[in-house]
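Our collaborator T.R. sent over the components below with a one-line note: 'Predict the complex.' Nothing else. No constraints on interfaces, no templates requested, no preferences about which chain binds where. So this is a plain run: every listed entity goes in together, and whatever single assembly comes back becomes the starting point for the next discussion.
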Amino acid sequence: MAAMEGFLTGAELEALGLSLRIAFVAVLVDLPFAFAAALLLARRNFPGKALVDGAIHLPLVLPPVALGYLLLVSFGTRAPLGAFLLEHFGIRFVFSWTGAALASAVLTFPFQVRAIRLSLEAQTPGLAEAAETLGAGAFDRLVSLHIPLAAPGILAGLVTAFAACLGEFGAIITFVSNIPGETRTIPLAIYTAIQTPGGEAAAARLAALSIGLALGGLVLADWVGRRTRTFIGQ
Amino acid sequence: MSADIALRHRLGDLTLDAAFGFGETPGVTALFGPSGAGKSTIIHAIAGLLRPDQGRIVLHGETLLDTARGFSVPAAARRIGVVFQDARLFPHLTVRANLLYGWRRAPIRAGGQNIDGVIALLGLETLLARKPRTLSGGEKSRVALARALLMSPRALLLDEPLAALDAPRKAEILPYLERTVRETKIPMLYVSHALDEVARLADRMVVLNAGRVVAEGSLFDVTARLDLFTGAHRLPGAVLEAVIAGHDMAHGLTELACAGEILVVPAIARAVGDKVRIRIDADDVMLARARPESVSANNVLPARIVALREDGPNADVQLRLKEGYLVARITRRSVERLALQPGTEVFALIKSVTVGGREPG
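Returned assembly:
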């Protein structure tokens, strides 16, 4: 971060740190749920499966602003769910970075589910049968076989979702507003800079930063993907 | 030490209705039949990977499946080793980790197979650090077999383990399989539709056709029957047991004591006294009413006709030797010309003998 100080102002660095923190929390919170959902969709047939599949993918096609609005009416402090969480657990999402993380998590959930589901469906069913005859029960097979073999999909999903989190704008500004140091991520900071007279230079710097992050992410994703595929013997 | 299997299952066009046993004596029981006969369904049901509509499976006195009581031991708890046709090695694990996968999960009371012993038995010493992706088809088969042995299985099911391999790879694996059969005391059920494999490995044979058991018995008796298969599924010939009686180095020949007679075959590198399996294809047997004097064939065995079965222009003739059976395939015209019928005493002229196989016991 220190090396960046000549290039970015304190407020811009704050936006960068906030963006990274929100994205990290969002993708990590999503991961176990995404794996469970992917496993359900890849392995089970049940009535209403198409509906569940559709609901999981809804954030991909829903306007982010609409999603932000839905979150606001669900988790606002006067909404039943939001009031319940605040009263019993002291959790408040609105006007907080945790709310931004929640919005990002909901929006990027389908990216992780899709990537993991593809890698689970690509696994030969015969391997699970072999593991079963060798004495591995269901949980054992999950840990010793399915998760390691899904590693490329898990990592690809994490990186894609992380990159998507960094670009999230509409849902965050609708749900948790644009508060410096709390919810003003890089995209919101760019928006603010453009709205401010004389802010073009700051907007350009932040845009360049976004490009750098996105490129770095893609290169990292490719490298990690190749390494893990080698690891799992493909 | 035995397994009793009784299964009924509908799968598409096939209605499986089979009951048989295996493992009464240590050694290999071949589950033999054309593709689509239900062999794989039986293997999957015994392993616990498929729940049959109705069935009962008892292994060494322990009930593994009894649909009448709604009882089924899960596959992971059956401790029945399976070697699949496609090996099914775990791609993310090294050969060593693949081998230890079942070994680690075997209960301590199973005694634990000697890891180094099994690795040596199947010649895997140099492969241990490699990933399955880098192995040849034959190497994969050997690793899959070792992995199943190391789980200390109570029975071993081999589901056409060689069917995916070409002839040179098969020839490479068969000696390892023979050693495994000889050196382990695990009852094995060997699924195959290739008689050469069965002739080398099996002691007993269960013949399956269209979901039903059509014959069950010793390898030597079953291979000499005429009524089991016709057309494309016809067995090429009978399997007999022989002992190396001597070598004729000057002529490059080996003498075999077989069925109370001496057979002469091209030299084989085995010690005198060794037991070998031989297969005599029906097309390689000619018949004569009198002992022929001036013929090039070295091997002439006296025999008595047991049964005849006509098949198009040909007829299969089952022959009783002093010990064991032989099958000859001749034309129907020859049958008429020589007036052959059950009970006729004849001489069998044997043109060619396929030698191969382990010494039993």
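Summary for T.R.: The mean pLDDT of chain A is 89.
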